[in-house]
Amino acid sequence: MTEIKYVTVLGAGTMGAGIAQVCASAGCRATLFDVDDDALEQGFDRIRRNLDKGLELGKLSSQEHHDSLNRLQGAHDLAFAVERADLVVEAVPEVLELKQRIFREVDAAAPPHAILATNTSSLSIAGISEAVADPSRVVGLHFFNPVHLMKLVEVVWGPRTSDAVRDAATDFVRRLGKEPVVVKDSPGFASSRLGIVLGMEAIRMVEEGVAAPEDIDRAMELGYRHPMGPLRLTDLVGLDVRLGIAQYLHETLGSEAFRPPDLLRRMVEEGKLGKKSGRGFYDWSEG
Ligand code: NAD
């Protein structure tokens, strides 16, 4: 397969900006595209802040800081953004029709050798790949938040993903300094399927007054050595994002373990989305 030198990331939100950052830091030319100019601007701000912090902590040299920024560019036009790409990573909101529409556009504009990856947390790779002429080049690359700190990337291969594309994607993850796990295309992959059960059960426990969020989290942190409890994690991921995944897993896998509790629905309706909105199971208003 062609060596991956040019990466284009679609969507400059929480995940997209982070993915572009780690690709640039690993030596690729990274183009970040978003339909929303403000989102693109904010994505670049976050990248700069992350790299500044890395410099401050001595995790990267000033040369690496400079080179990483130099290898990044923004784009306002999708066709322009993907025209040289060896790898496209889509990180737009978790809506199948939206992802399919974007993949259709990318299919028409990206070079034929380009690998088309999606950062979906739970949607079917096969479903997304229906939008492109050659589904063998579609693969899931499921990064974790915050991308520059989290080691894990799930490489999700669909029924029609070619072995060459799966292997190239796995090698690329290693090149980013991350740890790939290879997972078959099935709802929730490995991580969300387990993580959502824990998250939904923890919310049910808050709903039933079993314990305070802090105590539920501490139980998992100290009792099971989880680095972070399920409720704080839900706040970081976003309650709306987790609700969407839980609904999807409940519909596709059928188990009651995935049914979103009423408390979660209510909090989302009230705009308590976690860290990004200043309030979730914890108060984040102080920053
Ligand atoms: P986000 O809302 O932070 O960012 C999405 C970005 O996509 C926004 O900037 C938006 O302007 C942009 N966008 C919308 N429509 C677009 C279009 N047509 N073309 C280009 N850009 C468009 O979302 P996120 O949290 O970064 O999630 C993105 C994807 O990553 C989702 O599929 C999500 O399930 C997945 N994911 C999220 C997390 C997480 O912790 N947030 C973790 C792993 C995977």
Overview of the structural elements:
It is globular and about 55 Å long. It folds into two domains: 6-184, Rossmann fold (3-Layer(aba) Sandwich); 194-275, Orthogonal Bundle (N-(1-d-carboxylethyl)-l-norvaline Dehydrogenase, domain 2), CATH 1.10.1040.10. The longest helix has 20 residues, at 37-56. The relative contact order is 0.10. It has an eight-stranded mixed sheet with strand order 3-2-1-4-5-6-7-8, with helices on both faces. With 287 residues, the chain is of the alpha/beta class. The chain has helices at 14-25, 37-56, 62-70, 78-82, 96-109, 125-129, 163-175, 191-207, 213-223, 230-237, 239-253, 262-269; strands at 6-10, 29-33, 72-75, 87-90, 115-118, 138-143, 152-157, 179-184. The model has no long low-confidence stretch (mean pLDDT 96). Bound molecules: nicotinamide-adenine-dinucleotide. The site of nicotinamide-adenine-dinucleotide has 26 residues, from helix 1.
